[in-house]
Structures are given as structure tokens and as C-alpha cells.
Design brief:
This protein is of the alpha+beta class and about 80 residues long. The chain has one domain. It has one helix and four strands, in the order E-E-E-E-H. The strands form two sheets. It has a two-stranded antiparallel sheet. A two-stranded antiparallel sheet has the order 3-4. Strand 1 and strand 2 form a beta hairpin. The protein starts with 12 loop residues before the first strand and ends with a helix. About 20% of the residues are buried. It holds the Pfam family zf-HC3.
Amino acid sequence: MLFPGLEAEKPVAYWRPCGGLRHGMAATEVPRPGQERRTLCGELLNIVDASEIDWLAPTCETCWTAAIALRDAQEST
């Protein structure tokens, strides 16, 4: 190990643009094109390859709030 005592941070959520917003998904597995995944705000999305422009979409506020709650829960354990 290059830096003993330091661990790589695990992601709180994976983000994918869809329908004009960037949505968060649970970090249990990386979202891949062709998958159907539930977002942190409850939407069911079909994952597609996003363009560079798609990534400029605003973040879903509900997903963002849920991701912050997940982060805070992880930090308190």
C-alpha cells in the first residue's frame, strides 16, 4: 500500500443524466447502458450512453438530498 492508513473513498451514488436531469442511483453497482435502474428519487430509468452535453444537465434536487443523507449516514457509522 502506497499510503498506509488511507483508504479510497467509496462512492455514495452513481450519477447518470436522463430526461434533462442528472439522477443519482445507489452505489451497489455501476450503472451500465441497457440496465433499468431505480434512482434515489424513485424514478425507474433505462440507462443509456450519455453525450458530453447530457452531463451538463442540472442535478435532480431530490436525488441530491438523498445522496447527502446517504453520505451523512455512512460518515456516522
